[in-house]
Amino acid sequence: LVFAVIGGYFSLQLKIDTDIANLLPKDNPNVLALEELKNTVGGETEMQVAIKSPSFEANKQFAEDLIPKTLELFYSRYNDKFFKRAEFRKDTDIIKDNALYLASDGELEDITDWLQEEIDNAREEANPFFIDFEEDEEESSDSGENKAESFKESYEVLVPSEYPINEDSTIMVLKFFPTGSK
Asked: Is 105 helix (H, G, I), strand (E, B) or coil?
């Protein structure tokens, strides 16, 4: 009975450390490489937080309030903060400005053909001597609008949303990256 009590006491003092790097010497090349990786990008596993409300603006404000408080959380066991950084918005300006570089050859040909058609139509409309005897004018303008709408949809597929939200903007996901392996 005495051994059981002593064993129980010491078993409560045991701690589980799932970080395999703690089992290797600090100067091991693999441990050093892992430390460099942790310092560069943070820990191995991110934490995701989903925020849900009917208002996108409320979700955004909550996220802006939550991020600084979460980044200040301190983990006394490692004498460091829990999280190194958070991902809230994506910088989509570069993709918006360079979306045509991401388009396929077929999409670029379609855009070029459509633009040429629009230029030709504008020239014809600007020419005071041009007389159009065809009656399919409405069809061609509808076709041009359909093509423009199709190009806009393709553009929206290429350029992601600035914020990580679902289709109706009621759910937003934040990512927090740990300081190191926990």
From this structure: helix
